[in-house]
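Q: Convert this sequence to structure tokens.
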Amino acid sequence: MLILGNITEDVYPDCSLGFRKKFSEMATQTLDKSVEVVAPLADWNNWDKADEIIFAIENKLFPLFSMSWTRWKGGEIHCGKCQACESRREGFAKAGVQDPVRYEVHV
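A:
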């Protein structure tokens, strides 16, 4: 199982249910074993990034944020300036929690 952290407000193509289904099919065929791609928070209405962060803290899942990736392009660290990075930074600020990842651009 591959778990994505996207939420309802995410509008990027790789956050859609269609993407998750197609990726599951491709991974299953490629690896010759069942692979399911899920995004449990994407189906919860009215959640924003801050809600996701607070939920993770309350459920002892916060360390997963240090392993998550937001930047659209490759690289060693998050860019801090693309729309996805800006949304992530805003969510952490709204939740009142320090983001555990490094950014190229410091705001």
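The helical segments are 17-31, 49-58, 83-95.
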